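Lecture notes, unit on protein representations.

Consider one protein chain, 300 amino acids long.
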Amino acid sequence: MKHYIFALLLMTLACTMNAEIHSEAGEYGFKFMNIPINPVSSALAGRGVHSSANIGSWILQPASSAMHSYKAANASHSTWIGDTAYTSMMFSHARRSSHIGLALRNLSYGEIEKRDETSLYLGTYSPTDIGVSGNYAQRITPSLYVGANLHLAYQKLDTASALALATDLGITTLTPLKDSRLSFAMRNLGISNKMDEERVRLPHSFELDFYKGFSLGEQYLGLETGLVIPPDADLQGHLASEITLMERLSLRAGYKFNTDTAGLSAGFGLSLASFNIDYGFAVYTEGLGDVHSFGLSYRF
């Protein structure tokens, strides 16, 4: 069974790698659906799909959370590019054999000036993106997990708006290597209505992640690497690491490859009783500004 799963993953990845970039790249909307969900993800190169500290990992990989065990709620806030702010709230319940999750996300762009064709000032408007998501994942065999997400997303510019319904499909399998796993996901598959008489395309992507853990005495190190194929850019890669010291402090770092704007990221997490405080930092180039992300989690 495991050999067939590996073959399926490799065949799907090979097919998507040979696909050409869409001729109308740049016309995809609902981009907030691909923004790192919280500071853990932000610090781990925008991924962290196998980190047990990332209770929002199911947003990126619908199957992986089922192998953990926790019940937690989280609120996160990120100051993104310019005046953009990204806020998320979520609930996650993992039971080692299954997982359910709920999330609410909002991306606010701040106030934007509105002018006519002669540059006459007409006031301001505030674009916004809102998404509601749910997840269910299940263990199929002792080494195989599958999961799916359902998203309802709303995007508003000035007077125009669009509504979208999307799903993510994911699979996670344990590998023959000790404390390692491989995951594949197809994300943001769905439809939307028209905005200003033009249908908005969803930012679908194909994503492959591999994780390996190492016990270093009383400390623990997790390494993650993977590939992402977005619809309007070239193949992208990432490498991330997370080390947990004395079960209280986690140090995180990551790097994105083959992207025009993003690169290095870092952050930390601090566990205090049932609370977790997390911070993530990501460097952006080309004058876009850096990202600072803060989060607070409570584990029941």
